[in-house]
Design goal:
The complex is a heterodimer of chains A (153) and B (153). Chain A is built from two helices and five strands. Chain A is an alpha+beta fold and 153 residues long. In chain A, strand 4 and strand 5 form a beta hairpin. The longest helix of chain B is centred in the N-terminal third of the chain and has 53 residues. Classes of the chains: A alpha+beta (153), B alpha+beta (153).
Chain lengths: 153, 153
């Protein structure tokens, strides 16, 4: 009687071990890992695109504000006779004029260069203004990017 | 008994766990992607707005400095006698003469009268027409007032 009880207890314990403490098999784990890896690889590509797009939009915001800044500074120069240096026909950046525009500005390790090209607007043989094409360009990991504003003064 | 078997059966559970994880990962990725798309749209809109604004301003500056020629080029014989408040469409003239594409411009006569004080023009010999120039480039609209003298007959 005593022996029988003991045997019963033993069989219960061993049964519980097999049925409830069973882990995942190697094959299951391998298949799961493979599925997870394929899924992660897919989203990883998306994430690298997201990171690139976000850094581009940050840089574009910076470039746009630099372009607006330069455009407003140019607009503020009074148009006199003789024509101010900044509006002489040709390509300009800082250095050939007294305007406080940075030819290059570095924000978050990205270097932005500003330049503007001036061409006279001629109608009926008379110069009626100066067309200013202002470009802020930067290098986004090997891709040349730029923001361009055109105005007439 | 059958139910209990189904509940306790852990075969294939890893796959389900992995799939749930993957779905969560993909949902998070989609949310981030939506965010990035929005910021790209914002910067692209901002860029267009600034470009359009400077384009409209260019047309305005051009029209202001070439207003006499524009008025002369209009087919109206008695432009000076136009009723106040009449807006004349000068888009084609402005586009061809300034070289700014797609801009639309109107010239509105406000009133006729003596020259502005401080203009150093003798009110005895000169009449003045006051105009409002309005230039629109897509979403951006700018306007300015100007006056054009002509001799009293």
């Amino acid at each position: 009687m005593r022996t029988k009880t003991k045997m019963n207890n033993n069989s219960f314990i061993s049964h519980k071990r097999i049925k409830f403490k069973k882990g995942f098999t190697l094959v299951e784990v391998l298949v799961a890992l493979a599925v997870l890896l394929i899924g992660i690889m897919g989203t990883l590509k998306l994430h690298s695109y997201i990171i690139q797009a976000n850094s581009y939009s940050k840089q574009a915001v910076n470039a746009l504000s630099l372009a607006e800044d330069a455009a407003e500074k140019l607009t503020a120069i009074p148009m006199t006779t003789p024509i101010p240096d900044a509006f002489l026909a040709g390509s300009h950046s800082t250095g050939d004029t007294s305007v406080d525009i940075n030819a290059t500005a570095t924000i978050n390790n990205i270097s932005y260069s500003t330049q503007w090209d001036c061409t006279p607007v001629v109608a009926d043989g008379l110069t009626v203004g100066t067309r200013i094409v202002l470009t802020v360009s930067w290098d986004e990991k090997g891709n040349a990017r730029s923001v361009q504003l055109t105005t007439i003064k | 008994m059958k139910n209990q078997n189904t509940v306790n059966n852990e075969n294939g559970a890893v796959l389900v766990i992995v799939l749930v994880l993957l779905v969560a990962l993909i949902l998070i990725s989609i949310a981030i992607m939506a965010n990035t798309r929005t910021s790209l749209k914002i910067i692209s809109n901002e860029k267009n707005t600034v470009k359009n604004f400077y384009s409209a301003e260019a047309a305005l500056n051009y029209t202001r400095s070439d207003v006499n020629a524009i008025i002369n080029s209009l087919s109206q014989a008695n432009f000076d006698k136009l009723d106040a408040g009449t807006a004349v469409n000068i888009s084609t003239t402005v586009r061809t003469r300034s070289g700014i594409p797609d801009v639309s411009a109107t010239l509105t006569k406000v009133k006729s009268g003596s020259p502005p004080t401080n203009s150093k023009m003798g009110a005895k010999n000169i009449f003045v027409n006051y105009y409002v120039i309005t230039c629109t480039q897509k979403t951006e609209k700018v306007e300015i007032g100007t006056w054009v003298p002509y001799p009293k007959n």
